[in-house]
Each structure stands twice: as structure tokens, then as C-alpha cells.
Amino acid sequence: MALVTTTEMFKKAYEGGYAIGAFNVNNMEIVQGITEAAGELRAPLILQVSKGARAYANHTYLVKLVEAALAETNDLPIALHLDHGDSFELCKDCIDGGFTSVMIDMSSKPFDENIEVTKKVVEYAHDKGVVVEAELGTLAGIEDEVQVSAEDSSYTRPEDVEEFVDRTGCDSLAIAIGTSHGAYKFKPGTKPQLRFDILEEVEKRLPNFPIVLHGASSVPQEFVEKINKYGGNMPGAIGVPEDQLRKAASMAVCKINIDSDLRLAMTASIREHFVNNPADFDPRQYLKPARAAIKAMVAHKITDVLGCENAC
User: Which of 17, 108, 167, 271 could make a disulfide contact with 250, Cβ separation 3.0–4.6 Å?
Assistant: First the structure.
């Protein structure tokens, strides 16, 4: 089975009241852990690659890893997506290089400039049979090369979404309702709360249109505690409560991005392994349990947060 676009995935997700997991990939073990979990649960999947991941692992290596995983997952629908493309040129390179979906993120630019660049990407992508995600509103936090201060972040304005989608022709829209990039999303002692009022208003204005949540890792405290126990230093790492993500998935949100939780699961496992097995130096010895930790975490997300098990 070939890589697919997200069009049919999102249609089924919207109608079924669940979301598709969009998991960032950087190396073989991460790809394997994610796809093994999704394959066993028969859950559609988006594997996404950031600009930073392409710089780290090389575009061709990542595409071939995803193609290898596709061959092992028994016809599981998998889309290969560019996460946070910051230019037309980057999006074009990924479209020409085998991606089936791209995100153009001009959310930090003025409204009309965002529309102009997004429309250019959409026209090129659609001509190649590729779908496009755009963004309105700006998330705070840090992820790879995306760095936005809390002062510069902004919620999506529902009154802008219809014009934006009409003028750009984008296929899905990432909105800002209180999620944040990275592992330090909220101040300790505060109660994280997503702006469901904004999501509800966007849903009214864009009926049946797929909405995306970025910065949606939950930062499970068992990973943070394990990292700190075995020599790490991550005080105050807090994520988005999973029950709020499940609620968003039951509404118009069809795609939920998860990156930090993958890193935390992998790092916690590796730190624990080195402390308990100080003589080990073969990467297979510590990457095998790290891969298993990613698989278990992804299975939990698919079943308990996204609600998309057995959706294929």
C-alpha cells in the first residue's frame, strides 16, 4: 500500500468523533515504535517530519524509513507530513520528495501575508495531489526551530477562519486554543485549560472542516519523574491534560500532534537503562527498551486519548 493523504482519514475522524495521531519521527526506533503500536491497534497514522528532523536525519533516510514501516504494517493508512514548514521552498521540496501532506506555518506573519504564502503552497500541492495544513493563531513554546514567547503567542480569532480558508483553499487548519510547544507548557500550580469556546465557534463557522491541535503532548509525569530519578533535571514540566485532548477529539479536532511525549518516553527509558546497566555500550541494548517505551506510550494515546483504535 502506498502512502496516502489525510483527506479520507479526516473525513472518517470527523464523523466518528476521534482524532488521528500525528507523531514526529527522527530515527528508526521512533518510526518502529509508533507504527508497531498503530499496526496492532489498526489505527490510521500520520508520521510527521519537522525541518529540524530533516536536517538531523536527512530527507531521504526518513522517507525510506517510513516506506519500510509501511511495508510492515499490513495496509495501514499512513500519511507522511511536513510539520511546521516555514517557506514555500521547503514545502515544495517535501512535496517533490514524496510527502503526501505539508504544513505551511505563516502564523507569525500578518494575516494577508499568511494567506498569500499559504495559497501559493496550496496551489502547488494540489496540482501534485498533496494536501495542505495551515495555521491561524500562534502557539507559545519551543519545538525544534519553532520558538515563540508567551508574550508573542495569540489565540485564533474565530471571525478570521472563514475568510482564511476561503482565500487559501487549505485542507485543514491548526488553531491556537491554549496548547503550547515543548515540555513546559504551563506554570507549576496552574490548572491547564483549553479554550473550548474558541473551538466551538470555529466549528460553527467551518462545519465538517478538519481542525488540528499542535503542542498537544501531555508530558506524562511518570516519564518526568523517571528522568529526574535517573539523573535528569526537568522541574516543572507540565503538559495538556489528556481528558481535554479527548474532548477536543470528539469535536472538530481531527489531528493531534505529539512530539515531546515521544522524546520523554525514550529519554526516560534510556536514562534508566544506563543507571541499571552501567557496563552496556551496545546501542541495541538501550534502544530496544526505548523503542518498547515509545510503542507503549503511542498505544495508550491511540486508545485512551485519540479514540481511533480499530478505525481502519
Answer: 17
Rounded to whole angstroms, how far apart are CA atoms 231 and 243? 30
The amino acid that residue 89 corresponds to is E
From 83, 105, 259, 261, active-site residue: 83
List 141's β-bridge partners, or say none: 148, 181
Specify the amino acid at residue 229: K
Write out pLDDT tens, residues 35-83. 999 999 999 999 999 999 999 999 999 999 999 999 999 789 999 999 9
* pLDDT tens digits, 214-254: 988 899 999 999 999 999 999 988 889 999 999 999 999 99
* Residue 216 β-bridge partners: none
Angle 219-94-43 from CA coordinates, rounded to 5°: 45
Closest C-alpha among 90, 43, 38, 35 to residue 67: 35
CA-nearest of 77, 164, 176, 76 to 116 is: 164
CA dihedral 146, 148, 153, 157 (to 10 degrees): -20
